[in-house]
C-alpha cells in the first residue's frame, strides 16, 4: 500500500513484494459513502511454468521449482556437441524465463586454411568433431608441419595446416635438366683447368730449355 491519506476521493495504490504478482485492483478510492471502491487485491506467487528439455540437452542443476528466482542450468549430453542458446535460464518477475531455449549441435571446426601448393587429399566426417584432414604437397614441394590434423571439442584444429616449401623458401625442387647442365659445366671447367695446366708446364719447360743456351 503506497498511500496513507484516507479522505474523500483519495486513492490507495497496492503492489506486491518481489516474486509475487497483484491479482485484483491496483488501487482503491475513498467514496462519498465512506467506503472504498472495488475489492481488496491479493498477491499470488509468480510461476514461470515448467520448461521442456530439448533433444540432446541435459539439465545440470535446477532449483526444483519454477517460481520467481528459480533457475535451470544446461549442457549437452555428448562432448561432440556444443550448446547453442542460453546455458542458464531464470524465472523473472514478468513470469517469463530469461534467455532462449538451448539446443545442441555437433561441433564443427570449419574448413582449415590451405596454403599455396598444399592440397587436402583425405577428409573424414566433414569438418565435425573427431574428423581429420590429411594434406599433401604439389609436385616438387616438400611438406613441413603436420600431415594430418584433427577437429577437437574446443572447435579448433589440433594444429595449423602445414606448408609446402619449394624454391622460394630455400628448398629448390629437384630438376634433372639442371643436374645434367651442372655436370656438363663442371666437366667443361675441369677440361679448361687441365688445358691451362698443360700450357703452364709447356711454358716452364721451354723457359728452362732456353736458359741452357743463353750466352753469358
Automatic annotation (TrEMBL):
Domain Sushi: 1-45, 46-106, 107-166
PANTHER family in alphabetical order: PROTEIN CBR-CLEC-78
Keywords noted in UniProt: Disulfide bond, Repeat, Signal, Sushi
Record keyword Repeat present: yes
Protein name, entry field: Sushi domain-containing protein
Pfam families xrefs: Sushi
Disulfide bridges in this chain: 16-43, 48-91, 137-164
Amino acid at each position: 500500500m503506497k498511500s496513507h491519506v484516507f479522505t474523500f476521493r483519495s486513492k490507495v495504490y497496492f503492489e506486491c513484494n518481489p516474486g509475487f504478482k497483484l491479482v485484483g485492483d491496483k488501487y482503491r478510492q475513498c467514496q462519498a459513502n465512506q467506503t472504498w471502491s472495488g475489492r481488496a487485491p491479493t498477491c499470488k506467487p509468480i510461476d514461470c511454468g515448467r520448461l521442456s528439455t530439448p533433444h540432446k540437452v541435459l539439465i545440470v542443476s535446477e532449483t526444483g521449482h519454477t517460481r520467481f528466482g528459480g533457475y535451470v542450468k544446461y549442457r549437452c549430453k555428448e562432448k561432440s556437441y556444443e550448446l547453442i542458446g542460453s546455458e542458464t535460464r531464470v524465472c523473472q518477475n514478468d513470469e517469463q524465463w530469461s534467455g532462449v531455449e538451448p539446443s545442441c549441435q555437433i561441433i564443427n571446426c570449419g574448413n582449415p586454411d590451405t596454403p599455396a601448393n598444399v592440397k587436402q587429399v583425405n577428409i573424414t566426417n566433414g569438418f565435425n568433431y573427431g574428423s581429420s584432414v590429411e594434406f599433401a604437397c604439389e609436385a616438387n614441394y616438400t611438406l613441413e608441419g603436420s600431415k594430418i590434423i584433427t577437429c577437437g571439442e574446443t572447435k579448433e584444429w589440433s594444429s595449423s595446416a602445414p606448408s609446402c616449401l619449394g624454391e622460394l623458401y630455400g628448398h629448390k625442387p629437384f630438376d634433372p635438366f639442371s643436374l645434367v647442365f651442372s655436370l656438363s659445366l663442371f666437366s667443361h671447367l675441369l677440361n679448361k683447368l687441365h688445358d691451362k695446366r698443360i700450357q703452364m708446364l709447356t711454358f716452364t719447360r721451354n723457359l728452362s730449355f732456353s736458359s741452357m743456351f743463353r750466352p753469358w
